Amino acid sequence: MSDLQELREKVALSCRIIAMNGLVDDILGHVSVRVPGSDEMLLRCRGEEEYGLPFTTPSAIRKMNFDGEGPELGDRYKAPKEHPIHGEIYKARPEVGCVIHCHPPAAIFCSIAELEFRPIFGAYNIPAMRMALEGIPLFPSSALITRPEMVTPMIEAMGNKHILLMKGHGITVTGRTVEEATVRALNFDVLAKATLEVAKTGRTAEHISLEDIEELPDLAPLLPDGDKWVWRYQVKMLEDRGWGLER
Hints:
- By secondary structure, this protein is α+β, with helices and mostly antiparallel strands.
- The chain has a single domain, classed as 3-Layer(aba) Sandwich (L-fuculose-1-phosphate Aldolase), CATH 3.40.225.
- The protein is built from nine helices and seven strands.
- The chain has a seven-stranded mixed β-sheet with strand order 3-2-1-4-7-6-5, sandwiched between helices.
- A hairpin with a 3-residue loop joins strand 6 and strand 7.
- The radius of gyration is 18 Å and the shape is globular.
């Protein structure tokens, strides 16, 4: 299998994984990956036979430049209207290798209610807790991001963070790899769901203690392959549900 085909399959699997976990609905949302050593990306597009994100195939992952243009599109495939989100982030942040834009319901409801993401749990999901500690930037516009100049304030709001909450719209998540960005999106969904469920009780949950936070390990050196393990689990879950890619 070529490196390019392997990347297409990873993007297709990412689309299916985030759909399986409820982060996207029907045809909305998209995942891309930077083509190494180039000014091009592979982006989930819509074709003549569009069945939605849960049924994404590698053939729907098309190569184009960061402006959303390329011969692989032709008349059969169309890049999503919000392709500038992907291309402009790649232009501005060379360390980013994957971009995910999706509409998880819990995150959207949190953004509308302007709920604060706080470290209210610990070992339950350490990466998600650390997201709350570091803070989640909020982009106040709910508009469809269809032009490069609309991405500029997004990138400014995001700064050097890997997650941007877009009020009344969705989230944009970055990572070095498809696996990292996908797992990061799943972890943020855990944080958003917990935040929303606690808010529904009408009570304010206390932060976990500083002592507990200091006791929680840095998982990067402890589990250096953690993202890959979670990715493999998610791929296996796809296969068990009959959502795996056909070989």
